[in-house]
Specification:
171 residues; mainly beta; Immunoglobulin-like; 4-stranded mixed beta sheet; 3-stranded antiparallel beta sheet; 7 strands; extended; Bacterial spore germination immunoglobulin-like domain-containing protein; signal
Length: 171
């Protein structure tokens, strides 16, 4: 080490050590309660992005696209189809974990033949029943579950859909 650098570093190191030691001193024994901790306001959870009003590429009739998202690599979606133009049906298996699914949400955006949004729908699933705390049906992480995402408040005739998975919480 350069002698001049060492001469500058020693006092700075000593001052830092004294500052840290002074900040770590114990509170007096006669102080009955610790200082209150200020409350922290956390931001509200993010909501899933709104579907596109118009698709950049018009869909093929009956097409069901799966939008890439933070959880799409953790599931396998098979047999997806637009059922009667009013719902997306298929089968979902969680591939990343076999524990119970505490929360699962699928959203579908329904588009007409020109690619214009005509409605949306959601599918919610959980494996713990609120009353009993257990689940007797199929498990998404084992054999998978059948799904139906119905369209709500359609403003036109759906020709295709885009499916997204904004929520997946495992035990």
């Amino acid at each position: 080490m350069h002698p001049r650098l060492g001469a500058l570093a020693r006092p700075a190191l000593a001052a830092l050590t004294l500052g840290l030691l002074a900040g770590c001193s114990a509170a007096p024994a006669d102080d009955p309660q610790p200082a209150p901790v200020p409350s922290v306001a956390l931001p509200a959870p993010k909501q899933a992005a709104a579907p596109a009003a118009v698709l950049a590429t018009p869909p093929a009739p009956g097409e069901v696209r799966v939008e890439d998202g933070p959880f799409t690599d953790r599931v396998r979606l098979t047999g997806l189809r637009l059922d009667g133009g009013r719902a997306v049906t298929g089968h979902l298996t969680v591939t990343s974990d076999v524990s119970d699914v505490l929360a699962l949400e699928l959203r579908a955006a329904f588009y007409d033949a020109k690619g214009t949004l005509v409605g949306t729908g959601a599918f919610h699933y959980q494996e713990e029943e609120e009353a009993s705390g257990r689940h007797d049906g199929p498990h998404a992480g084992r054999e998978g579950i059948d799904l139906t995402v119905g369209a709500d408040h359609l403003t036109g005739t759906p020709a295709a859909a885009v499916l997204s998975l904004p929520v997946l919480v495992n035990e």
